Amino acid sequence: MKPTWQFGDVYGLDPELLSMVPRPVCAVLLLFPVTEKYEAFKQEEEEKLKDQRQKVSPDVYFIKQTIGNACGTIGLIHAVANNQAHLEFESDSALKKFLEQTSKMTPEERATFLEKDESIRVTHESSAQEGQTEAPSLDEKVNLHFIAFVNVGGQLYELDGRKPFPIVHGATSEDTFLEDAVGICKIFMARDPQEVRFTIIALSKDSY
Questions:
Q1: From the candidates 71, 78, 124, 185, which is the catalytic residue?
Q2: Marked catalytic residue, from 26, 124, 145, 185
């Protein structure tokens, strides 16, 4: 991805700190702990939505997660794949090639394709090694999970490769997207008030 768009930490959730995040923001990633409370909620939500049948736009790019500890990669794919109109890619971008090759596939087919795609895995592993904390091995049990929030067609979507389908959170706009996504992040935090391991990252346009 060309450096006109950058991932950056959101340092706080009050309006003053949110106003420091460069705009526009086209995706938000949430890193959160997978606790028993969250798993119970996830199960309930799935049961409820199976009956309710959400209206999901065919323009939403969704991929299932079948590789252990790859939620960061899946979150990144969801953030970028649903914002291709905004983003510019380097000509040799492995991610751009992956998105082109999988654009017509089902979420399950994309997951299988990712399992076999060396270039994305190598890029993900090298990015993970650059981080300050030691990256967990693919088989290690990790109880932190990344999900993405994106705006597709004026609707706020939560994209989580562990869930069977995207979750629709209602109307949003380019101007209110960050606040709307953070509103959903606050619900995740309220569900586990004892937990502090939450990180929010915004994909925003570099103002320089």
A1: 71
A2: 145
